[in-house]
Amino acid sequence: MASLRFPIPQGTLDMLILQILSLEAAHGYAIAQRLQQVSRDTVQVNQGSLYPALHRLEQKAWLKAEWRQSETGREAKFYALTRAGHKQLAVEKESWSRLTKAVQLIFNEGS
Amino acid sequence: MARIFNLLPWRRRRLERDLDRELRYHLDRRIEDLKRAGVSEFEARKRATLELGGIAQVQEEVRDTWMWGGLDVLGRDLRFAGRTLRRNPGFAAAAVLSLALGIGANAAIFSLVDQVLLRPLPVHHAERLVLMDWRGQSLSAQWGSWALLSYPLCRDLESQNRFFDGVFCRHPTGVNVSTGQQHELVQAEIISGSYFPVLGVRPELGRFIDPSDDRDRMAHPVVVLSHDFWTTHLGGARDVAGRTVLVNNYPMTVVGVAPAGFRGVDPTSAPALWLPAMMKHIATPEWDYLLNRRAFWMHTFARLKPGVTAQAAQAGLTPWFVSILEAETRLEGFPVVTAEQRRAFLASTLSVEPASRGISEQRAGLKRPLWVLMAGTTLLLLLACLNVAGLLLARGAARSRELTTRVALGASRGRITGQVLVESGLITAAGVVLGLGAAPAVFRALLFFLSDSSQLRFGIDHRLFFFALGAGVLTTVLCGLAPAIQTARIPLIATLKEKSELGTARGVRLRKALLTGQMAFTLILLIGAGLFVQTVAGLRAKGPGFDTGSLLMFRVDPPSIGYPEADADRAMRTLLGNLQNVPGVEAVAVANTHMLNNSGSSSVFTVQHDERIVTDRVTYMRVGPGFFSVLGTELVAGRDFSESDIRAPGTPEIAPRVVIVNESFARKYFGTRNPVGHRLGLGNRPTTVTDIEIIGVVKDFSRRNLRDQGLEQLYFCFWDRQSADGSFYLRMRGSPEAGFAAIRETVAKVDRTLPVTGLTTFESQMDRSLNAERMLSTLSSAFGMVALLLSVVGLYGVMSFVVTRRTQEIGVRLALGATRSDAVWLVIREALVMLGAGTAVALVSAKVLGRMVEAQLYGIDAFDAPTFVMASGLLVLVSLGAALIPAWRAASVSPTEALRYD
Description:
The complex is a heterodimer. In chain A, about 60% of the residues lie in helices and about 20% in strands. Chain A contains 4 helices and 5 strands, in the order E-H-E-H-E-H-E-E-H. The longest helix of chain A is centred in the last third of the chain and has 28 residues, at about 85-110. The radius of gyration of chain A is 16 Å and the shape is globular. Chain A starts with 5 loop residues before the first strand and ends with a helix. Chain B is α+β, with helices and mostly antiparallel strands. Chain B folds into 4 domains: about 1-65; about 125-355, no CATH class; about 365-540 and about 770-900, no CATH class; about 550-765, no CATH class. Chain B is built from 26 helices and 25 strands. In chain B, a hairpin with a 5-residue loop joins strand 3 and strand 4. In chain B, helix 4 crosses helix 13 (about 415-445) and helix 16 (about 505-540) runs antiparallel to helix 22 (about 770-805). The two termini of chain B are about 40 Å apart. The relative contact order of chain B is 0.10. The interface between A and B is medium-sized, with 26 and 28 residues.
């Protein structure tokens, strides 16, 4: 099964995290699960790289974090997007779509 | 960059704890979910951990983001800034050099200000030291210039242990010391036995003088040596205690050595040795009033008890001091004075002032000039900052296309602003390093203007380090702020659409504002320079009141190398006779003091004409026959001293018989009467005999320094008593320097071992007496010139930029019929607006700053209109010169080419 899933491209993890959190605040475990669900198990997210990414985004002030009660009643660290984070997400989406369009164009030309 | 705070230990601990909780939560939830899916507890735990890829590893990676995330960006910015600067060596050099100038000057002057004015004494709890002073009528004779008390009063104060942990007193003096063959004039402190114990310093070796060394007159021939003297003169010998040194040719036993860095209570002097007050007669044989309550010569310090303030001590001492005053009036020998003077005496108070920085006569004179200089250099640094900010702005404008593109491509404006700040930080850091490298040279140049600078050194200690760091941070922000704001506000679309790369109107406006500031600072510095230069010129032109052109002076002190008084007196007479026959010497005379060195004796006198008047303190000096004619001053009445006033050699000390007064004295105490023939007496006691006849009146001239004017002075006859030491004054034919060798030879013929000290032309003595003024005028002129240069370069840059930006517009105007002079005017007008605004700001500030420098000026008003006009004129002239080059370029624009210009 693992061989069918391809590893997430470099640098897109940040964008995916921002995207997930743009809907609602969530803790690390929830983000990991959501990543699995929304990518329909096609993208392999190394859970070990999730937390460094979260902390990196927090340090860049794109995310803010607070300790809140989770659905199980235990305190968990919830991440949410800051205004700078929203902007960043827009920028990344924009450049992503340009990139994919460009790649698509090249592919179309070739065929 | 806030990430740097993650290094703080408490911050770090919280981050670690939170990370731990976070990961544990993840694991627990995963294990729970797996278990619910039917996986065994053991298997679930294993899988959860495996999925995470090793907890320790995750922790490590997260920790990296805390730290390196920020540092990485910083490092990249630094490399980028470094590359940019390397690519623009001209820009980098201009920026770094102007900052280095500002920071070097600031560091040097701060170091001096710190050592002379700010730094507390290197003793135990210096902040608890206080200095006592007599406020009011003390009816005393004084040796020294301020904060003087009598030695008995100091000892009385020792009993006041309600407020003080201890009291000590000291008197600075010069002594001749010999550890073998050579005699050498060194500084010394006469101290009460409590000096070292109260200051709380530990001896380097041996022991210090203590109260048991200060009990009976002449019974304690002991000295403590300074660390410097011990190492330079005795090779740092560990067995030095017990050795004998000659102090003014009197054998004294070394008991100990002070620790390195301890230089007594005057931060601007460096005593070589300390001796107990009871041995005062050895150090200052010419006046010996150790136990006289009306002889004020001691600086009296105390150490406050913990928790007692200076004000509390002063208030608390008042009742005791009142009783002392009353007791003193009842003592035998208290001067008989008018009821009014007595009331004034009894109304005297004893002030207690904080004295953590000790006492320094030099400091008193340097305080204001140094602060003025510090203000001047700060202004210079600000100006340099504006200059660099202007340069960065210009560069930012040129790069606006690039920056906009980067913003459009997703760089955050914060990152770009950060980059500008990193760049200005890098420039500043280079400026600080270069500036600190240059600071010692500036410092040495400053010392040149100090009369005694042996103990001042430029060293980078923690205080200077923090000063430089503070200046650096401030400079970074000041230099980088305007450019950072500018780049942060670049309008995206407009700039991208703009055809030329020359930036926005906003950038130009900002640069013009900066330049206006530069103009203002420059003008302030120029006005200051003008005022100080004229002060020195004015004092020099006024002179001491006689022709100084061909005058020489030097001093000999035979008793200091062991001459008995009578032999010394004979040697002085022989020397005077021999000097008269030296070729090139027109006339020679002797006096007891060196002129224009801010020192001199003073006393109160009793004048007798129709009534008996007690004078205020009057300075006096003893001069030989012909002294006034050597100087070239005139007697306006009566006669000079003559042969008949000279007593035979070897006559023991006798009271003076004749005196010459100056015009101010005559005016004050005799009004319109002719004082010649009247009498006065030394002192103000009822028993004071007024038997000194006034034989002449001499014109006023400056004696202690060039600023004193209209001071009452008395002149006694040098040979009226045995005179063991003195200064010779010679009027030379031709250049006075030519006489130096002949003089040394003549002295050597009398005694080869007799040292000639203070041999100098009167002119250079005058210069030395103007040291503080010359320091201000030289440095402020230098600052003014540097400032002018910086702003002219800045102006040239901005105007060239403006012309380039408006080339097309100028071309259109020319094509539509504007003349060349219209084009020139277009550019010059912009320069004039900036100049006008800058001048207005400067003139208003100068009005305020004038008050700060008023006391430093002489013969010129702080708001001297001609100076203001001249300085503004200079600035306008030079600035217009700089603006003319770009203006001329504007005028030579070819309309056809400009219109084609894209």
